[in-house]
Amino acid sequence: MTTTKPTLRSTAAVLLAAGLLSACSMAPVYERPAAPVAAEFPANAPAAGATGTVPPAADARAAVDTGWREFFADERLQQLIATALENNRDLRTAALRIEEARAAYNIQRADRLPSVNANLSETRGKTPGFVNGTGQSITGGRFDAGLSIPSFELDFFGRVKSLSDAALATYLASDEARQAAQIGIVAEVAKAYFTERAYAEQYSLAQRTYEARRRTYELTQQRVEVGASSRLDLRSNETLMETARASALALARQRAQAENALTLLVGAPPAQAASGVMATDAQIDAMSAVPAGLPSDLLARRPDIRAAEQRLKAANANIGAARAAFFPRISLTAAIGSASPEFSGLFDGGNGTWSFVPQLTLPIFQGGRNVANLNLAEVRKNIAVADYEKTIQVAFREVADALAARTYLGGQVAAQRAIQDAQADRLRLLQLRFENGVASSLDVLDAQRELFTAEQQLVQARLLRTTSAIDLYRALGGGLK
Fold first, then answer.
1. Cα(160)–Cα(190) distance, rounded to whole angstroms?
2. Fold of 30-115+156-329+373-475
3. pLDDT for residue 102 is more than 80
C-alpha cells in the first residue's frame, strides 16, 4: 500500500493538469466583419418652407444614456411601462431564455473538468459445484467502496473548449436579446399609449362636432317648418351631422382596439387607461432632440446587433469543435477504493484497489461525417455573418428613417396647424356673411366639413411626430436605463 499512494497522487495530478492545460482551440481567429453601411447617416436638408424642426442641442444626451423615465415625462405612461416590464409575456419569455442558455452553458462548461463519483456496493453470488470443480456450490460476497473518475477527455485539440465557448456566446446572445426585447417593449407601450390618446382626442373632437351639427340640424328643421329654409339645406345639414356621428363611432371603435393592444403589451389590464393627454409640442421637441451619432456607435448601443455578433462568435467556435473531430481523442478513467468480503473489514489495510485506464480514439473511417460536420459549421458561420450584416443594415435604416421623419414632421405639424387656424377663421367669416345674407348655407357647411378634417389631420400629424421621436429613441438603443 505504501507504493500505491505516490502512484495515485501522481496519476491524479497528471489527470488534472492535463485536463486544465492541454486545450488549444482550433477555432478560426474571430474578426468582426466590417459594417456594410455608410460612415455617416444621410443628411436630410429641410424642404423649402419647412419649419418646426428641432435639431439636438450640443449638450444633448445620447439615447442609451437617457432613461425611459427621463425620456417620457407623462407619469401615467411611466406607470404603464413599469407594469409592462414586470408582466409582459414576451419579456418574461426572453428572461427565461436567458436561464435556459445559462443552464446549457453550465452543462457544457462542466465537461472541461473531471467528474468524481463516490460509490459503495455489495455483491453476492452463488457458483454451482460443476463450475468451480469442487462438486459443491459456493456462495460468496464482496463489499466495494471508492472514488472514481469516469471517462474524461483530455482536450488537446480544443473540441470541448470550443463547444463551451459556443455555449457561452449563445448565453450572451440570449441576454442581449432580452435587452433588445426590453427596448422594444418600452417603445411599443409608449406608441400604443399615445395612439390611444390620439384616438381619444379625435373622438372628443368628433363628439363635439356631432353635437354642434345636431343643434344646427334641429334649428334648420324648425326653419323648414316655418318656410325660412329649404329641404336642401335640411338634407345637407343632416348629411354633415350623420357624417360626424359615423366618424365618432369609428373613432370609438379604434380607441377601444388601441386600448386592447395596450393591455396586451402591459400584460395586465391598465387601470384608468383613459387618462392622460397627448404629448405637448414642447414635450415632442424634447423627445426629438436626441443626437444620432455615427453608424459605428450602433455596434455598441444596439443589443440586437450585439446579440447577432454573439451568435456569430458561437458559430465561429463550432468550427473549432468540428475541426478537432478530425484528430485523436484521449480520455482517462481512474478509480481508487477498497474491497473486502466483510463490511467491517472494508477499510482495513491491504484491501486497497486502484485502476488507471488511458484510452486513445483515432477516427479512421466516418463515412464523411466529420467533413460534413465541418462544412455545416462553416455554412452556419456564413449565415451568421449575413445575419449580423443585415442586422446592422436594418438598424442603420431605422435610424435614417427616424432622422428623416424628425427633419420633416415638425414642419408638417406647423403647416397642418396653420391650415386648421385658417379653416377656423374661414368658418367664422362665412358665418358672419351668412348671417348678413351674403353667403349661402352651403358655403358654411363646406367650411364646417373642412375644419373638421383639418382638426383630425392635425391630431394625426402630431401623433406621427410623437411616434417617430419614439422610434428614433428606440433605434439608437434607448430604453434600457
1. 46
2. Outer membrane efflux proteins (OEP) (1.20.1600)
3. no
